[in-house]
């Protein structure tokens, strides 16, 4: 996940710098100044690389990563929902919830009401 976020950040830096030099690059291209165009593009890439190297890479802590770990998994929720919790008793209730009839969006046909008790 960190790699994807860091790649997106790098892409944004590149886009920002190239968009700032867009008019100049277009003029060089229209004038047929291929050598100057390539040189200017290399300069912009170098500026972007310097800026990127100064950025601290995003690192997700083990604690945060643990929140997104599932036991057993549920493929239809992948990249869709974040669910966390722990069943400490009443696994039979969990089995009943899993067996409820659902619609085409995988939602229960009839809403399920739950009572929640927060323990201190």
UniProtKB/TrEMBL annotation:
- Judged by the first EC level, this protein's enzyme class is isomerase
Q: What GO molecular-function term can you cite, just one?
A: peptidyl-prolyl cis-trans isomerase activity
The PPIase cyclophilin-type domain covers which part of the protein?
Answer: 67-115
Keywords of this protein's UniProt record, alphabetized? Isomerase
Q: Which Pfam families match?
A: Pro_isomerase
**SUPFAM superfamilies attached here?**
Cyclophilin-like
* Cleaved signal peptide residues: none
This protein's source sits in the domain of life called: Bacteria
Protein name in UniProt: Peptidylprolyl isomerase
């Amino acid at each position: 996940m960190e790699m994807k976020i860091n790649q997106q950040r790098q892409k944004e830096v590149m886009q920002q710098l190239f968009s700032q030099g867009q008019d100049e690059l277009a003029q060089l291209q229209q004038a047929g100044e291929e050598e100057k165009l390539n040189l200017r593009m290399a300069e912009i890439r170098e500026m972007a690389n310097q800026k990127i190297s100064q950025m601290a890479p995003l690192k997700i802590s083990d604690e945060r990563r643990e929140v997104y770990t599932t036991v057993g998994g549920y493929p239809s929720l992948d990249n869709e929902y974040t669910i966390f919790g722990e069943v400490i008793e009443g696994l039979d209730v969990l089995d009943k919830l899993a067996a409820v009839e659902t619609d085409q969006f995988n939602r229960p046909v009839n809403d399920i009401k739950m009572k929640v008790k927060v323990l201190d």
